[in-house]
Protein: Phosphatidylinositol-specific phospholipase C domain-containing protein
Amino acid sequence: MRVTRQAAALLGAAAMVMAAGSTAHAATPTFADATTIGTHNAYDKAKYTYFAQALDSGASLLELDVYTDSISKRWRVSHSNPFGNDNNCEAAKTPDELYSKSRNQDLGSCLDNIAAWHRLHPAHRPIVFKVEMKNGFNNNGGLGPDEFDALVSSKLGDMVYKPSDLLGSAYSTPDAAAKANGWPSRDALKGKVLFELIPGTVEMNNPFDHYWTDREYGDYLRDLYASGNISKAEAFPAVLGASSGDPRAARYDASIRPWFVFFDGDAATYVNNGYDTAWYDTNHYLLIMTDAAGVSPAISSTNPTDAEVTARLRLLAARHASVITSDWAAKPASLLSSVADRG
Structure:
């Protein structure tokens, strides 16, 4: 049977789940050697009725927007309301309560939902929870990095893969561990979750706030390690915004640069400007490429064809993304759970 070039390309894209990459990786691929798909603002009720459905979606990254409400001493989950909750997290702490309870809960309840869902799926895929701290931490108000970590630890316990896990006993910074590709394999991370912290739009637009989430948590990690308490840290801070070279050099002092191994920025900016994204892959840093649909040729940001999603995954895997994100919540779990070789 004669197959046209166009048909062959479409068939190849649709069939690709584990694509062979051109960049040499370890004999046993690690977590940093893969490219997966994530969902932007997964707490949005328009995307998933319940947050447990976001967990069911197959996506390898789910985003939460969090406000520190220092008046009520609560961690609010909402897109634009710092004093209220507007989300699909429900008042459910046990598996049998999921998919049925009242929504619009705080971050603690979102974590309860994760813990309850984990009990139903103890060997689930590793999931990154990207937390945008919309108005930043408020350490003076009792909602700082240590309180965030205490909350996560109390709700999720040893489910969380932490900076201290990456360090193990062999490395003194995440940078050293990443460069040695000290990440576990994806199989070894089954049943685990990771937290990525990024600065939020409110704090970045606040002319009186020059100490954003990324630097605050970076300082916190450095100081925890110096005091012998790095195991208390639950999250990885991310360098936000696509740029060329090593963006840590211009943003952070030398004492905290090695504590950043997550990088997060717009996919089209990385690709269209010809940035050297191989640098992230070579050093085994985790690179989150957002708004994957916007890379030329643009595809739907909400409901592209399955073949288009697969082709976009392959394209950005070749450009060394670790996770690509968009608003593809309508796509099936069989697609959103796809894993490609990075590079």
